[in-house]
Each structure stands twice: as C-alpha cells, then as structure tokens.
Amino acid sequence: MAHLEELCADAWPSPADERLGAWRLRAAGGYTARANAALALGDPGVPLPAALDAVRAFAAAHGIPPRVTVPTGSPWDTAVSGAGWVLDVGHPAGAEVAVLVTELAGVTAADGPWTITTPDRPDDDWWALGLRGGRPSPVQRHVLDPDDGSTAFVLARDAAGAAVGQVRATVVQDHLHLSWLEVVPAARRRGLGAALVAAAAGWARTRGARFGVLQVALHNTGARALYAGTGWTEHHRYRYLVPPA
Hints:
Layout: H1 2-11, E1 16-20, E2 23-27, E3 38-40, H2 48-62, E4 68-71, H3 75-82, E5 86-87, E6 96-103, E7 115-117, H4 124-130, H5 138-144, E8 151-157, E9 163-172, E10 175-183, H6 192-205, E11 211-217, H7 221-229, E12 233-242
Parallel strand pairs: 3-4, 10-11
Antiparallel strand pairs: 1-2, 2-3, 4-12, 5-12, 6-11, 6-12, 7-8, 8-9, 9-10
C-alpha cells in the first residue's frame, strides 16, 4: 500500500515536496487535493502533535489549507482522526478515493472510429479538452507535464480531426499511473474510454511497465465502472482529513 502511494505521488509531482520522516508535505498552489496534502504513510519521526503542527505550518507557508492524506483504516488514519481531524467533506472532487490496480497485459479494447496517438508532450487540443478550453497555469504544467519522457498525453480524434478524448499516462518504475481521463459527451458510451486506457497500457508496456495504478473518487461511479470493465480492481482506499472547523 505505501509503495503504491509513493508511486502515485511521484507520478503527480508537487512543486513543493518535503519529507517529514515517512510523511511527505506537498503543495501545488491549491491545484488538486492530492498535490496539496501531507501524505501520511508511516512514522513522521516526531510525536503526532508535532507532525500535525508541521503540516499546518507548511500549509500556511504555501498558502493552502492544511490537509492530510491517510490510507483508510491505516494506523495513521486512526491516529490523525483520533487527534480530531475530520473528513474533508467540502472537497468537491471527493474526500474518499479508491486506488485501483491491474496487470497491463490484460488491458485491451476494440478499435473504433477514432485515431489515438501517444505523444510525449501535450498539444493545445489536449490542454483545451482537459481544461474546458482554458490554458494551463505554471503549476498545472509542473504537475502534469514533467517533460522528461515519462509521460504520454494520449489523445483521440474523430474522423474530422476533432479531439474527443484524452488520458494522461505516466510510467513510474514498473507501473503505469493513469490520470485525467476525459471523453467529450458526444463520444461517450461508445468504447472510447476503454480504448484510451488500452492505448495508454500499450504505450506503457513498451517502456517496461507491467502493472497499472490509478486513483478514482468513490462517488465517480461512471469512471469506476469503466475501469472495472477494463480489468482494474480495488487495492485500497485513502481519504483526506482536515482540522475541525
């Protein structure tokens, strides 16, 4: 569990990432909870009250709310919640998350009426699809585009050349980390999501990856159904805890 969480953190890198024992204090200007939370995976090397004070101080220094990510049911979930921290129910993307895994050899999909490419840099269409027509901020570029050859910006186009789907694929050690899956409404329920996942898996296999890992909010039932249909299973869950109001 801890190994997978470390891989996911490496695949979604925060500009500020400091170690506190086995904890990681992370900040990314508020862009996504996973990049702006302390990841609690083991002994922080100091008593728990001091560790939580360090989380608050780090968050204040970076202008973000204090937040801790804990694997659900882990000793650190028990400890941090026992210190009075509560579920971050105000987080719109979902305060409880499932971590799914698969063996990439079994991830396949049927062909469809689209063309899928796996470039190692995002083009304007990839950004526009994911950002609803917007442009990436410097923080978003840092998190999403490491520009080191580890990431493919998978993009599907229809017969007219319009961008209709995307996913971000990052290889960390022997794992593929998937994120930012998006399919335009007009192209949904036609197998494109599964085709994007399969294209990402095929690309990752050429780079030595054998396994896949991804994070999906528990309330995102549509995405969870898609991943279940392409062979992904739940490994564990995590949740975001924040100080009481």
